[in-house]
Design a protein that fits this description.
Blueprint: E1 2-3, E2 12-13, E3 25-26, H1 29-37, E4 41-48, E5 51-62, E6 65-71, H2 75-80, E7 86-100, E8 108-122, H3 126-140, H4 153-156, E9 159-165, E10 168-174, E11 192-195, H5 215-218
Antiparallel strand pairs: 1-2, 3-10, 4-5, 4-7, 5-6, 6-9, 7-8, 7-11, 8-9, 8-10
């Protein structure tokens, strides 16, 4: 199954169409990009020696591309450098609430997630690599890439970035309240939602840092990555 994409949606495929709770799925570019831009940690799935492997790593979105950071010595980064690339699945999840119901069975989680399938390739063009490395820094802390020393040749030799074009991708979300069964409504148990959010505390300077806190950190808020 595959539906053609358009200017506002990614194509629907069998891999991006859930078999359960299809009403929670979305192929809207704006929604998918918003979820990706609110995060900086993803999980990279691939197959190595016939077995599945899932690794956490940082990422950045630039237009319809995901850039993932790693070491030149890591298995997926080396494999992505092969001419055929590396088949991968990249997952990003944001937890927004714990949903507590009167029955153990109906407990759930409010979340926003994106799953992307495709073939990852290693970034080798120097200009694209420099852009991707800046984007990776800014994905977590917008504005930071302009306030650091750039990687030198020795550091670049140890650093690899892979690229995944967003093509076969979808989002899935839950943003509902507690869904108690009608037969459970009179039970004497508490039900409801415990909201979950990421909080960034005040930055703690290194003892050798004499500079005042830069504006991009003074006003830093979670989910403030640029679109």
């Amino acid at each position: 199954m595959s539906d053609a994409p358009n200017a506002t949606q990614y194509a629907r495929t069998s891999r991006t169409t859930p078999t359960r709770y299809r009403d929670r799925a979305s192929w809207e570019r704006a929604e998918i990009h918003a979820i990706l831009d609110s995060a900086w940690l993803c999980h990279l799935g691939f197959v190595a020696d016939g077995a599945p492997v899932v690794l956490p790593t940082i990422f950045a979105r630039v237009d319809d591309r995901l850039y993932l950071h790693g070491s030149t010595g890591s298995r997926p980064l080396r494999a992505a450098g092969a001419p055929e690339g590396l088949p991968v699945c990249v997952t990003v999840t944001q937890v927004d609430g714990l949903v507590l119901t009167k029955s153990a069975f109906n407990h759930s989680v409010n979340f926003r997630s994106v799953v992307a399938h495709g073939t990852a390739e290693q970034v080798t063009d120097p200009d694209e690599l420099a852009m991707a490395l800046d984007a990776l820094v800014d994905q977590a802390v917008p504005g930071r890439s302009g306030d650091v020393r750039r990687a030198n040749p020795k550091e670049l030799a140890k650093t690899a970035v892979i690229r995944l074009v967003l093509d076969e991708v979808s989002a899935k979300t839950r943003a509902d309240g507690a869904d108690d069964d009608e037969d459970d409504l009179d039970l004497p148990h508490w039900s409801g939602v415990v909201p979950v959010r990421t909080v960034y505390d005040a930055p703690v300077p290194h003892p050798g840092t004499e500079r005042e806190l830069p504006d991009y950190l003074r006003d830093f808020q979670p989910g403030s990555a640029p679109c």
